[in-house]
């Protein structure tokens, strides 16, 4: 109504103003001064009235708009802040700041200052680079509430003429966060409650500590009043309470308890959703007798935004004592087993030494006879004796290897070997197995095969013997042909062995069954050996006609001469003179000394023989010098290691000492080398090994 009156009055005043203006112009050309002044006053009054009316209306409209703006702003879940970008002063702050951010100060500047120094807001405001920026949901600790809030921050710039402002919107996103994590929270609640229910049902506890992580409060409650392990029941501030609890914990275990139960670690579990239970064990101090052991199970619960930790604890001293007793019993049993194993190892080592000693003599004497002028028949017999002796040694190596006996596994034992010699042994073994059967055995070797290879001679020979023996078993008459050829691959050679017989043959289905099963004892052994050698096994057969087994494996070439050259020049290859060099041999077995001397004299060496370690030391002390010493390990009085150690303590002694021993089980070489010997040769002495050692220490001098 007032608005209509103001409009009508304004129209009348405008008409009056127009009329007065026209009258004024008319009278302007007259001489009536009074009239002109009167008309001018009327015009001024009318103008003032019109200006007042419009200013009042504009003020009322602005006031109504401001009221509407504040009403809209303060009814939202957003705090609005306007900051002068140059002065960094707040020019506007919406009234929702207390509700959302929990800050309340008497002045605009104090309130704004507190808001702007909230770490996350301060950080985001300092990092603004674009005109607009919206953050991810951020956790915010509102002191007004006992649970964390979640907010988003929107930053933008606003320009007005020459002024620039930062507009900050802080949006309460707690409901959005709760909605997103509702399912996770519910699932976690269910899982946690089930876990606790099951544990409580299954176990009996002595006391409980319940912690409200959000409020940093706790209470300690005992289920049994017999022992107050952590003092009287208590509640209050958790940080202070934990310090009091730790006073009852054994000082050696306090760090363990604190690292798991301090408030920061508990909060970290919830922030990372690490909600699986944790178990810790610790001792109580001297206040309780016998320092009992406590086992605490820590459970993490989330319920409607409230993070709670429940710690259920019990005395487990008796259980741990029982476990300790069992551990002592097990340790004693383990020690007894180790002693038994040590005794067994020592027994096996002694047996190995005792068996190898006579074999050394047999092999050494037969080798020395081969160098003399004897008939071909006798030479062939002696060669067969040597081959058989080497086979016995290989058998001993297989039987007396403790790792194979205990672990039931086969390990590679690689060394240099002669391909021709290996198939000569295969031929001799096969002839013995054929016996009276009407079978012709053929060994065909490619003359271009290398002489000396490096590999597991024992396992390869065993695999080939198994294949040949299997052919003999299923062949009543006819032929068995062993063909050997090679394919060179850089410094290696792929050896291909084909064993073909004219036996009964194998049906196709049965052949598949044999290859895919482990029931055939002989073939199973071959397959295991082939796997060890990284080789390949193939079988083809036709019933009533033949069976062909092909074995292939890769070996490293040591000497790439031809097999034919080996037959004519094998003796010359090992011969070289070391005239003028002096060698000392220490061994308590006189026959061993005799055999060793014969082997060494073939190199034109000056050989001295003694039987004890004490004699050796006295000989060196009397200023007798030698270029090389061979020393037996198992001697009465001073053994080889003790003798070596005493020699090395003598001033100026630098002579290399090679252990000469029948202790040849796996790992012994490394043991002797680590003890200080310069090299190692096992008995029976292999001529190629002896030549290697002599070249190493004497030929280069």
Account of the protein in words:
The N and C termini lie far apart (132 Å). Helix 1 runs antiparallel to helix 2, helix 11 packs across helix 19 and helix 15 packs antiparallel against helix 17. It is elongated and about 165 Å long. It has 23 helices and 24 strands. 49% of the residues lie in helices and 24% in strands. It is of the alpha+beta class and 701 residues long. The protein has five domains: 71 residues; 104 residues, 2-Layer Sandwich (Beta-Lactamase), CATH 3.30.450.20; 135 residues, PAS domain (Beta-Lactamase); 163 residues, Heat Shock Protein 90 (2-Layer Sandwich), CATH 3.30.565; 126 residues, Response regulator (Rossmann fold), CATH 3.40.50.2300. Strands 13, 14, 15, 16, 17, 18 and 19 form a seven-stranded mixed beta sheet that branches. Strands 1, 2, 3, 4, 5 and 6 form a six-stranded antiparallel beta sheet that branches.
Write the layout of secondary structure elements.
Elements: H1 2-27, H2 33-74, E1 78-84, E2 90-93, H3 97-101, H4 108-116, H5 119-126, E3 132-134, E4 138-140, E5 149-160, E6 163-172, H6 174-180, H7 182-202, E7 207-212, E8 217-222, E9 234-237, H8 238-246, H9 254-261, H10 263-271, E10 278-283, E11 293-303, E12 306-315, H11 317-370, H12 376-399, H13 402-407, E13 415-418, H14 419-434, E14 438-445, E15 452-455, H15 457-473, E16 477-489, E17 492-501, H16 508-516, H17 521-532, E18 536-542, E19 546-559, H18 563-574, E20 582-586, H19 590-601, E21 606-610, H20 613-621, E22 628-631, H21 640-648, E23 657-661, H22 668-675, E24 679-682, H23 687-699
Parallel strand pairs: 14-16, 20-21, 20-22, 22-23, 23-24
Antiparallel strand pairs: 1-2, 1-6, 3-5, 4-5, 5-6, 7-8, 7-12, 8-9, 10-11, 11-12, 13-15, 15-19, 16-17, 17-19, 18-19
Helix pairs in contact: 1-2, 11-12, 11-19, 14-15, 15-17, 20-21
């Amino acid at each position: 109504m007032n608005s209509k009156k103001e409009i009508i009055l304004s129209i009348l005043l405008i008409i009056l103003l127009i009329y007065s203006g026209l009258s004024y112009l008319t009278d302007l050309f007259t001489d009536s001064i009074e009239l002109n002044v009167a008309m001018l006053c009327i015009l001024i009054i009318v103008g003032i009235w019109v200006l007042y009316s419009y200013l009042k209306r504009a003020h009322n409209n602005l006031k109504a708009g401001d009221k509407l703006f504040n009403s809209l702003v303060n009814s939202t879940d957003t705090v609005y802040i306007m900051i002068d970008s140059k002065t960094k002063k707040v020019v506007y702050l919406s009234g929702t700041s207390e509700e959302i951010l929990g800050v309340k100060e008497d002045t605009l500047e104090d309130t704004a200052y507190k808001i702007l120094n909230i770490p996350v807001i301060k950080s985001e405001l300092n990092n603004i680079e674009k005109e607009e920026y919206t953050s991810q949901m951020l956790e915010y600790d509102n002191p007004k509430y006992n649970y964390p809030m979640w907010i988003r921050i929107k930053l933008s710039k606003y320009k007005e003429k020459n002024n620039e402002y930062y507009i900050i919107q802080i949006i309460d996103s707690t409901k959005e966060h709760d909605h997103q994590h509702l399912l996770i929270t519910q699932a976690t609640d269910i899982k946690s409650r089930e876990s606790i229910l099951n544990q409580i049902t299954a176990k009996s506890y002595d006391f409980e500590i319940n912690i409200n992580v959000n409020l940093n409060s706790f209470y300690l409650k005992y289920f049994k009043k017999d022992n107050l392990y952590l003092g009287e029941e208590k509640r209050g501030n958790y940080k202070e309470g934990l310090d009091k609890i730790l006073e009852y914990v054994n000082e050696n275990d306090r760090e363990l308890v604190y690292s798991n139960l301090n408030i920061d670690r508990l909060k970290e579990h919830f922030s990372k959703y690490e909600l699986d239970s944790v178990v810790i064990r610790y001792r109580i101090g001297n206040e309780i007798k016998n320092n009992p052991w406590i086992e605490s199970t820590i459970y993490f619960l989330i319920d409607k935004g409230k993070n709670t930790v429940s710690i259920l604890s019990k005395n487990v001293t008796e259980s741990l004592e029982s476990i300790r007793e069992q551990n002592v019993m097990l340790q004693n049993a383990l020690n007894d087993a180790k002693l038994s194993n040590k005794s067994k190892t020592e027994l096996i080592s002694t047996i190995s030494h005792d068996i190898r000693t006579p074999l050394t003599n047999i092999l050494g004497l037969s080798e020395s006879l081969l160098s003399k002028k004897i008939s071909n028949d006798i030479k062939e017999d002696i060669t067969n004796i040597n081959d058989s002796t080497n086979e016995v040694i290989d058998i001993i190596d297989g039987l007396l290897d403790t790792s194979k006996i205990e672990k039931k596994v086969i390990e590679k034992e690689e060394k240099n070997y002669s391909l021709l010699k290996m198939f000569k042994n295969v031929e001799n073994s096969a002839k013995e197995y054929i016996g009276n059967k009407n079978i012709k055995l053929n060994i065909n070797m490619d003359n271009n095969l290398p002489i000396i290879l490096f590999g597991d001679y024992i396992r390869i020979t065993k695999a080939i013997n198994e294949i040949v023996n299997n052919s003999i078993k299923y062949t009543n008459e006819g032929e068995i042909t062993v063909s050997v050829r090679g394919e060179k691959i850089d410094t290696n050679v792929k050896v291909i062995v084909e064993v073909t017989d004219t036996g009964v043959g194998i049906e196709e289905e049965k052949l598949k069954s044999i290859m895919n099963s482990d029931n055939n004892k002989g073939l199973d052994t071959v397959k295991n050996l082939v796997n060890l050698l990284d080789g390949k096994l193939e079988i083809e057969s036709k019933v009533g006609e033949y069976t062909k087994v092909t074995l292939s494996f890769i070996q490293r070439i040591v000497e790439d001469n031809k097999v034919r050259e080996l037959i004519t020049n094998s003796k010359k290859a090992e011969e070289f003179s070391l005239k003028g060099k002096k060698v000392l041999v220490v061994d308590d077995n006189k026959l061993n000394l005799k055999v060793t001397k014969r082997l060494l004299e073939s190199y034109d060496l000056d050989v001295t023989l003694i039987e004890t370690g004490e004699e050796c030391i006295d000989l060196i002390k009397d200023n007798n010098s030698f270029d090389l010493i061979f020393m037996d390990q198992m001697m009465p009085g001073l053994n080889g290691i003790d003798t070596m150690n005493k020699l090395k303590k003598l001033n100026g002694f630098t002579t290399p000492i090679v252990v000469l021993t029948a202790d040849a089980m796996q790992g012994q070489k490394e043991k002797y080398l680590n003890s200080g010997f310069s090299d190692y040769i096992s008995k029976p002495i292999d001529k190629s090994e002896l030549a290697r050692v002599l070249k190493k220490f004497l030929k280069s001098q």
